[in-house]
Amino acid sequence: MLSALVSGRLLRISPVRCAGTPDIVARMWKRHLCASCAALLASVLWAACSGDPYVDVEQGPPCDSTAECDSERTGTQCIDGRCRCPGPEEESCCEPGAREEEGDLCERACRSIRECNATRCETARDCPAPVDARCGEAVCVVGVCRLALPEQLQNQRRGDCTTLRCDESGQLVAEPDDSDIFNDGNECTVDACAHGVSVHHPKEAGDAEEGSGYCDGEGHRVGCIRDEDCGTPSFACSTSGRCVLEWCDNGVFDDASGETARDCGGPCEPCRAGQPCAVNSDCIEGVCGPDRLCDHADCDDRIQNGSETDVDCGAPSCPACDSGLRCHAHASCKSGVCTDGTCVDPACDDGVKNGDEAGIDCGARCLIACPLIISGKET
Questions:
Q1: In the chain, is it the N or the C terminus that has fewer CB atoms within a 10 Å radius of its CB?
Q2: Packing angle between helix 35-48 and helix 21-30, nearest 10 degrees?
Q3: Backbone angles phi, psi at 23, to 5 degrees
Q4: Tell me: the pLDDT tens digits for 201-221?
């Protein structure tokens, strides 16, 4: 007869055939005996049997069918001849807070790997903080670390076609949200989201919805799209959507009619850079240089030209625009927030680190304090 001290209990084992060792350990599993106990007993039987195989408790006891796995209690199924958890993200472990050495108090069952690896604690300070400070806070519940997650994040960046949520680890996860549409302030585009990306499709050619003018079908607002839009037979609609005199495309430099170069300037199409000009309006980019030649747009020429969204700002090569000025994207604004085509002031709920904030919507004028980072741990 064999004897073994297991968790403070002296177990006496009647003589058995070594081939029956797996069944003994399996019965211990089913009777809720802790895994460490079963493992120790298996090692005793191993020694006694001089090398006969025994059950690896971590692999689950052997089985011929799921009915032998007590699946209603443990959640295991008979897979490849052993009682195992069916899910790839599951493993068999004690109820969080219980220890293997507590014997029958350890209710082994299939649980998520994260739940099986939960940290034990006495206070919340023993627990790891969420990966992102906006994802709630760590709490200690019945000796086990948990995360108190917000049901819905309030600090969402508007118009980015995504919604942020917190996963079980406290990490921010961005999910496509095609209802979170960005308004680019251009009445000649149709704003939409496509699989989490902001898109702006040109409207069909026709009247602009607001004020005077027309949409050219390519996303631009123009003065005309047909000759009759110009209101008089002496004017025609140019290829760029401007009403110009009919002789503006005769291939001749009509100086007496106001042209500054052949078929451009004055009442005709504006001229390209390097062509003669008299005033800024004679030039495509709106800059008539001191040498009376059209020049390229610049970020300090005091004119809205080139790709600027307002005067000398908003273009990729220019500074961002102040609040109240026009914009076509968040990046056009100093605050990082463009709403309905206008830059707006920083706010404590806009989902952006701006103004004098120390973090995203925290610190400074915001009522929410930013988390402190001490020895690599947010507190």
A1: N
A2: 170
A3: -65, -35
A4: 999 999 987 767 899 999 999
